[in-house]
Design a protein that fits this description.
GO molecular function: catalytic activity
Structural class: alpha+beta
CATH class of the largest domain: Alpha Beta
CATH architecture of the largest domain: Alpha-Beta Complex
Distance between the termini: 9 Å
Number of helices: 14
Radius of gyration: 21 Å
InterPro entries: Amidase (IPR000120), Amidase_dom (IPR023631), AS_sf (IPR036928), Carboxybiuret_hydro_AtzE (IPR014087)
Strand order of the largest sheet: 1-3-2-8-10-9-16-17-13-11-12
CATH topology of the largest domain: Amidase signature (AS) enzymes
Shape: globular
Number of domains: 2
Number of strands: 17
Protein name: Amidase
Pfam families: Amidase
């Protein structure tokens, strides 16, 4: 595993040139992505040119930034200068190329990082499995017969598969948290408004967030802080004294026992514990579904009227159904959202953190795409976000914590904090990583570092 920190350190100290590192990762993608199908386009010319500029700055004795020479990939709904932002669709493929990078990509490049690829996704980010009608399905790097999760499956698989040090994705109803869990990597859905959405193709603007996938919690913190332009470290003197609330009821049903056991292991790290059964959570999840469908449908309505056959049929049907939802239903869902946000505000007067599963089991098989809800076999494509969707209704930051278990496929947990408490989540994640409870599961490739 080559961490963001290690790559930047070696390039800065001239052990490797940025050109060598970028070339290595481009070769890794070409060699190993055949089985995963996480990458849609290589940005080879841009990446190699950027690497020469980084090497020139280092030769002049200058520091290009904290992410000097680190390659990364972006979900194909971020604007990349000179490339068409397709959002995984045929419909947008004939658009003009972007005339500038998305804001967060600009920030990462200013810190020395180098984009090398665009990454596969569900069309218009509407899905949980990254099954794209135009680019094909992204497969889980740890078992290619299983889903990688979605809609940021290409982003999670590329990091979990060891072919990129970090990547960018988006999360509307779980599209960072679900694939991060299945692919065994760290991810974060930040507080609403913390990261700029300029240059990111929208899905449902009330819920859309962007965030990074990384191989370690420290990498996640470094990359996020660059994206958020955070320049100071926050020190938390006594993590173990934090008050943690374990979500039960809905968040325990249909969850594998070993995941529940790990949650107990996490809870025992804190001196103050409690259990919480969130009320009306089914209605909260339903409201999340409704608002997402309505906002997505109305966004796409002009294209649905003019070019309906350019959509993946499954995406088209869901967007059309959303566009037909009455305003009264949307307003009722907004009332539920407001109530839920206020309810969480009250909970956070008693607790610093909440913990819940991100997924209920390991990634489902592609040829048997089902999960269990209330003991019944149901569609995985529809229900993989059953534990993530409720928290999309909040403004809270959610850390996706990878759980590595010897001999088993990875799963993930959610740690939820009050808005603007990302640094607290990173500190807790670091504690769990040091204790060996949380650990990324990365496919080991030929090492360059």
């Amino acid at each position: 595993m080559s961490s963001v920190q290690k790559i930047a350190h070696h390039i800065r100290n001239k052990r490797y040139s940025a050109q060598e590192v970028v070339s290595h990762y481009l070769e890794m993608i070409e060699r190993y992505d055949v089985s995963m199908n996480s990458v849609t386009r290589l940005l080879k010319d841009r990446a190699l040119y950027a690497a020469t500029k980084v090497d020139a700055l280092i030769a002049e004795g200058k520091d290009p930034g904290p992410l000097v020479g680190v390659p990364f990939g972006v979900k194909d709904l971020f604007d990349v200068k000179g490339e068409v932002t397709t959002a995984g669709s045929k419909l947008l493929s004939q658009n003009n190329p972007a005339n500038q990078d998305a804001n967060v990509i600009q920030r990462l490049c200013a810190a020395g990082a180098i984009p090398v690829a665009t990454l596969n996704m569900d069309e218009f980010a509407y899905g949980f499995v990254t099954d794209n009608a135009h680019h094909g399905m992204t497969h889980n790097p740890h078992d290619v017969s299983r889903f990688a999760g979605g809609s940021s499956g290409g982003s999670a698989a590329s990091v979990g598969g060891g072919i990129l040090p970090f990547s960018l994705g988006s999360d509307t109803n779980g599209s960072i948290r679900v694939p991060a869990s299945f692919c065994g990597v760290w991810g974060i859905r930040p507080t609403y408004g913390v990261l700029p959405m300029q240059g990111v193709y929208p899905f449902a603007e009330s819920f859309d967030r962007i965030g990074p996938f990384c191989q370690s919690i420290e990498d996640l913190k470094i990359v996020f802080n660059v994206m958020a332009e955070v320049t100071t470290n926050t020190f938390f003197p006594s993590i173990s004294s934090l008050r943690i609330g374990q979500l039960e009821g809905w968040f325990e049903r249909d969850v594998d026992q070993d995941i529940l056991d790990v949650i107990q292991e996490v809870v025992r790290c804190f001196s103050k514990q409690g259990k919480i059964d969130l009320p009306h959570i089914e209605q909260v999840r339903a409201a999340s579904y409704l608002m997402t469908a309505s906002e997505g449908g109305k966004l796409h309505l002009p294209h649905l009227r003019a070019q309906p056959m350019e959509y993946d049929p499954a995406t088209r049907e869901r967007l059309m159904a959303g566009a037909l939802l009455p305003v009264s239903s949307y307003l009722k869902a907004q009332e539920i959202q407001s109530w839920f946000q206020q309810y969480l505000d009250n909970i956070f007067t008693e607790y610093d953190l909440l913990i819940a599963p991100a997924v209920g089991s390991i990634a489902p098989k592609i040829d048997n795409p089902v999960v269990f809800v209330d003991g019944k076999s149901v569609s995985a494509r529809v229900n993989l976000g059953i534990y993530t969707q409720p928290f999309s209704m909040s403004h809270c930051p959610v850390l996706s914590v990878p759980i590595h278990r010897d001999g088993k496929l990875p799963v993930g947990l959610q740690l939820i904090a009050k808005p603007h408490q990302e640094q607290l989540l990173f500190a807790v994640g670091s504690l769990l990583e040091k204790k060996g409870i949380a650990k990324a599961t990365i496919v080991q490739r030929n090492k360059v570092l």
